[in-house]
Amino acid sequence: MNPGIGLIKRRLEKENQAVALATSHILKEYGGGDGSAGLTADSVSVLETKYDTDSGDWYVALGWKDGNYSGNDNDDNDNDDNDDNERRVVVQMDSILGTVTGVREL
Asked: What is the tally of helices (H) and strands (E) in the chain?
């Protein structure tokens, strides 16, 4: 018999640990790794965090302004949220393994 998700020691126990891992991953993936793209930890803002108790996954929504991103703003709709070149992603992390399992760009 396998222990339930609540009995296993989690590596990402608290929200601030999940936010730190998500921010670090985004800085490596979108910031070029060396900070040359101008993306810093201070420029990334946390939009929302959720913990799924059934699967043991953290979901962290992050956003930042990106001057190099043109986005998909080709529909001539003036009510788009991407007019100011803001990027948003949701980072999914496994709290047991402490790893990023997926990144979805919004």
From this structure: 1, 4
Domain assignments of the chain as residue spans, ordered by start: 5-70+78-105
> What CA–CA distance (Å, rounded) separates 46 from 63?
7
Cα-Cα-Cα-Cα dihedral sign, residues 71, 73, 78, 79 = negative
pTM of the model: 0.74
Per-residue pLDDT of 3-38, as tens digits, reads 565 566 778 889 999 999 999 999 999 876 555 557
Q: Which CATH code for domain 5-70+78-105?
A: 3.10.450
- Is residue 42 within 8 A of residue 65, CB to CB? The reply is no
Q: How far apart are CA 46 and CA 27, in angstroms?
A: 13
